[in-house]
Amino acid sequence: MEYCSCCSSDEESAKRRAMEDELRDPKNFLEFFLPRPLRLAFFGASAASCLIASVLTAVRLLQSPALELAEGTGPRDLVVNLIGLATFAALFVYDQQQARVRVERRREIREAQIAFGDREVFVNDQGEKMSRLKEVNDDWILRRLERWGRRDGMPFVGPAKGAILQRLMAERRPQLVVEVGTMAGYSALLMAQALPPGGRVVTFEKDLLWVLAAKRFMWQASQGEKNRGLDSRVGDRVDVQWGDARESLPRALRPGVDSIELLFLDGTPKEYLEYLKAAEPFLAPGALVVADNAGVFAAGGLRPYLEYVRGSPDRYSSQLLPCKLEWRDDVDDGMEVSVYLGAGGGGGQAAPGTAAGLEVAATAGPSEAATAAAAP
Ligand SMILES: C[S@@+](CC[C@H](N)C(=O)[O-])C[C@H]1O[C@@H](n2cnc3c(N)ncnc32)[C@H](O)[C@@H]1O
């Protein structure tokens, strides 16, 4: 089953082709200079010319063996042409085999996508059975990243911590969220879903490959019926910035203009305090600062950070929200949530309730919390 674009509009089929992106063969160096049809023609024509030359040399040798042997050119030409024939024929067959492997791999991927519900099977106008990827959107991307995270133990925050983040978003309703540590953009997308109208997430990632991956996921997240006609599509609300947050965060934000209302720290644990110090001049009084892995790294890399926020009552009102480590029900972790009280202290908007004025219930699922947060 292959995707057929003949029955769609140009725009629709271009979009579909882009969505099928991940099924494309990885481009190698040779592919770039010599695409497969050209390559096959070259290998085939070279093998055929070596074959013809071998036959002609053999005939020459048979007709006047004494002369050819005396000059020595006949046997040498024959050997060279036979080696050429064997080499080009082997390359031709190898290339064909590789193409079959790629076709088989694409078939396996398509079947896995059908099994996961990412791909739908349909019958086209000619009565042929075809398949196509379902329209992607933010929920689709989050599901895929969760599957990936669970399978390979990727350090994405995961749905349980994601629900806490979205709940915090619903309570604080931040216009500007800053994140350190984008990776594939899972947590950024969860927070973007829960933004109030007009809000944005600026997220920093030092690894260029992750930056490119996250940007692609954000683009995909903005597709689909759900995002059609929206002024600000969910992936467009996320600004992925490349660079070490310790230097790029103060450079990317405008003093006196950009005011961080929620700061999510999920980079390298031992650098958290440096991220906070870099972001502090931009924190709005009452801003929430959320530090991931405050349970598992409490006695390790996060210690200076935790000592700072817990030991500065004039600046922060801080509490640990216990939760499990992503993908692991058997490992305790936590998120340190600190309310910034302002440089002079006491400027926060923390409401009564808990130590930090937070009523964080992690019981609601991520999208439930997102709906509450995104309500105008
Ligand atoms: C735990 S992962 C982030 C996961 C992501 N927040 C999520 O939940 O989907 C940590 C990421 O932080 C990035 N990182 C580490 N140190 C950084 C720094 N100083 N500046 C920017 N990014 C950093 C790493 O490259 C890695 O991709």
TrEMBL record:
<keyword id="KW-0128">Catecholamine metabolism</keyword>
<keyword id="KW-0472">Membrane</keyword>
<keyword id="KW-0489">Methyltransferase</keyword>
<keyword id="KW-1133">Transmembrane helix</keyword>
<protein>
    <recommendedName>
        <fullName>catechol O-methyltransferase</fullName>
        <ecNumber>2.1.1.6</ecNumber>
    </recommendedName>
</protein>
<keyword id="KW-0949">S-adenosyl-L-methionine</keyword>
<dbReference type="InterPro" id="IPR002935">
    <property type="entry name" value="SAM_O-MeTrfase"/>
</dbReference>
<dbReference type="GO" id="GO:0032259">
    <property type="term" value="P:methylation"/>
</dbReference>
<dbReference type="GO" id="GO:0006584">
    <property type="term" value="P:catecholamine metabolic process"/>
</dbReference>
<dbReference type="GO" id="GO:0016206">
    <property type="term" value="F:catechol O-methyltransferase activity"/>
</dbReference>
<keyword id="KW-0808">Transferase</keyword>
<keyword id="KW-0812">Transmembrane</keyword>
<feature type="transmembrane region" description="Helical">
    <location>
        <begin position="40"/>
        <end position="58"/>
    </location>
</feature>
<dbReference type="Pfam" id="PF01596">
    <property type="entry name" value="Methyltransf_3"/>
</dbReference>
<comment type="similarity">
    <text>Belongs to the class I-like SAM-binding methyltransferase superfamily. Cation-dependent O-methyltransferase family.</text>
</comment>
<feature type="transmembrane region" description="Helical">
    <location>
        <begin position="78"/>
        <end position="95"/>
    </location>
</feature>
<dbReference type="InterPro" id="IPR029063">
    <property type="entry name" value="SAM-dependent_MTases_sf"/>
</dbReference>
